[in-house]
Write a structure and sequence with these properties.
The protein is of the alpha+beta class. It contains nine helices and nine strands. It is elongated.
């Protein structure tokens, strides 16, 4: 329950700062995790990316200011952090489907998006297999891409990088280098504030990195969940971990990267493990 209370405290922070700067790192601090983990938890729990939720809340209040208070468009735009009237117009239309200038006409319909309130709900009894393991630090070698603080943008960057290394021979080269546990192709998200966020496609190896990159995954305790299927199935497993397992597990996010371990390379019938860094509450 404490975990849910933290999420609701973070929502309270957002509500207090809709007309100010919303610090994503502060949101993570309130929820006792990195801002990356907070955004991921929020997306899975709320069914909407954090950036979209904030935009909807701002535009919901902006419609009230325009329709009920008679404020000028330029003043409302500035109130919610839009220095450009064009950017405000675009955001407003994306939410309400009409231009801000049309709101003052009688009979015009706008949308209202109330603040989210998180609660624990009981779902169907579908088991989740997992194990808790504490592992020493291990070295990975591979390639990486920077991750954007707006997680939605990463949903195109990461698949594009996988496609690139699959076609240019880098992936097969990495597979030939793996010689230390965990054995498999790894997707490692190093997203702990305040360090820069990166996503590595790599293997655990003792070999020289040469023209590749290397990174030390720190010692940590992991909750490890096995799965199989496609990219969609791994996303569904991650959603269930955050929404079903984590809130009542007695654990919370630890200060280490998220790790995906791909045990085979069949994209249509992959066998994989999702490693979530955890600490006891």
């Amino acid at each position: 329950m404490e975990w849910i209370e933290r999420l609701n405290d973070a929502i309270g922070y957002i509500e207090e700062h809709l007309t100010k700067e919303i610090d994503y790192e502060r949101l993570g601090q309130i929820a006792c995790c990195s801002s990356y983990h907070f955004q991921r938890m929020f997306t899975y729990m709320a069914g909407i990316p954090l950036s979209d939720y904030i935009r909807r809340r701002k535009m919901s209040l902006a419609a009230v200011d325009l329709q009920g208070k008679g404020m000028k468009i330029i003043d409302v735009a500035g109130k919610y952090g839009y220095n450009s009237p064009t950017a405000f117009n675009r955001a407003f239309q994306s939410v309400h489907g009409i231009a801000p200038s049309a709101v003052k006409k009688q009979g015009v319909s706008v949308k209202s998006f109330p603040p989210i309130l998180f609660k624990i709900t009981i779902k169907g009894a579908k088991e989740m297999n997992y194990r808790i393991e504490t592992k020493d630090a291990f070295r990975i070698v591979g390639v990486s891409v920077p991750l954007n603080k707006d997680m939605e943008k990463n949903f195109t960057v990461i698949p594009a990088k996988w496609q690139e290394i699959s076609t240019d021979g880098t992936l097969q080269r990495l597979i030939g280098m793996m010689d230390t546990p965990p054995i498999g192709v790894l997707g490692v998200s190093t997203c702990n504030d305040p360090e820069p966020w990166r996503y590595y496609i790599a293997v655990s190896t003792s070999q020289e990195k040469n023209d590749l990159e290397d990174f030390i995954v720190p010692a940590a305790t992991w909750a490890i969940f096995p799965g199989e299927g496609t990219n969609q199935s791994i996303q569904e497993l991650e959603r269930r971990i955050v929404t079903e397992w984590l809130p009542t597990s007695g654990y919370e996010y630890g200060n280490a990267p998220d790790v995906e371990v791909y045990l085979n390379q069949d994209p249509q019938n992959a066998q994989y493990e999702v490693w979530i860094p955890v600490v006891k509450k």
